[in-house]
């Protein structure tokens, strides 16, 4: 199972609501043991990978899904699962930077994804709490909301400008989208996984890590025990495990935090999102155990920004100031990748990789974008050329929309690289470690990442990220080593939790 969220004295069970409520629904995993050949190998069983696999099966292609962990235990198992075409102030941005036609294309792709999920839920009779609900983007800057309302309408969406946002009286204005939806993403995807398991043209191998991909005609996908030969490969691994197009320089990881809260009284209907850098996201979830309010926010670049435990505390304070909190039931955290021009990468992965496709860079909006990736990539692989793929083309050049951000983000990664190395080499740090604490110490000129667990044992691994050699930083809430350059994460024993790194940190002798 995916790593639990830890972190000392923080309130709430350290796991996502989605994982906690489906723990007993996972069948025995069937790791890949033997070589075989298929039309398409899909790597990653989050919403993008499973949506791709089910769409490919509907088109008659044979499919194998390879998943390092269990189904929907990555970002998809820790999302807030709003299924919306409202994605912050995206339409104003798209209209300005990409033009009106592409803004409309983006809007209709997202709306089609909500409909697709609803259709599949009906067809497969999935009990996953899908409900149509309005979604509000609120702000204290009415001008910003007016522009977004206007751009969303111009993109063909039914958006309305409102000045009353009941749970957030202090908000000056909001744009309201009707007929959006929320659901339980893991229940939805476990049902799709079952469908694939029961299908002779598909196979699903969990606990199977892809270690290498050799592009070609056909492609070879190597795992720890066997190899899959496939005409086409879809990388739905979050950050692509094969980077032939410099994705590390064109998108950056943003981590954020979620609390699952029981209230005294009924939680609000509708979904809410406060725009701006320090966003807040609010929705309700209902199940047989009652109702929970999900509150998300406190985002920051992975591996940067100080104590992560403090972020949970700030989120709790914010929630208590606005709602009558009875109990914090769950807390969790995860990260998504933000492209410099704010548009996901869906399509051919890069030069020299004709038969390899990617789906990534969903910018915190992967429920609809991941569903769309599945629909569009399956059509492309099946020989159609969906027009929307031009918008999402991973090899697009959008200097107007991306130049400034590309420069600042890469300068930031370079600066992290230099300052962290200098700090590590200059600090003769041999101070003691408390349980739950991690530090980088120097041993024979080499930086070693040491962490002490709750039992008092010290774990020591190389502090040099296996992706591009930045130095990792300790994450105190999750008790992990996080890389400030491009967001790879490792557990205290060095095992990769999140890419772009695909190799573990080697163990070191305890200094
Ligand atoms: C806090 C937070 C809240 C969010 N809330 C929303 C929301 O309300 N609405 C919305 O639309 N979006 C939301 N998002 C974004 C959304 O959750 C993600 O965009 C989406 O889940 C990404 O899906 P995915 O399939 O690309 O990735 P994942 O779900 O991470 O799937 C990738 C899979 O690939 C596997 N993998 C990786 N490497 C390998 C390998 N080498 N071999 C085999 N398998 C591998 C991983 O184990 C993982 O299971 C949120 C994001 C965050 C961070
Ligand atoms: S993630 Fe790129 S150097 Fe660590």
UniProtKB/TrEMBL annotation:
MF-aspect GO terms: 2 iron, 2 sulfur cluster binding; metal ion binding
Annotated Gene Ontology cellular component terms: cytoplasm; membrane
UniProt domain Rieske: residue ranges: 425-511
Organism superkingdom: Archaea
Keyword presence, Protease: no
Disordered as annotated region, ranges: 1-33, 489-511
Pfam families in UniProt: DAO, Rieske
Keywords: 2Fe-2S, Disulfide bond, Iron, Iron-sulfur, Metal-binding
PANTHER family: RIESKE 2FE-2S IRON-SULFUR PROTEIN YHFW-RELATED (PTHR13847:SF274), SARCOSINE DEHYDROGENASE-RELATED (PTHR13847)
Protein's recorded name: (2Fe-2S)-binding protein
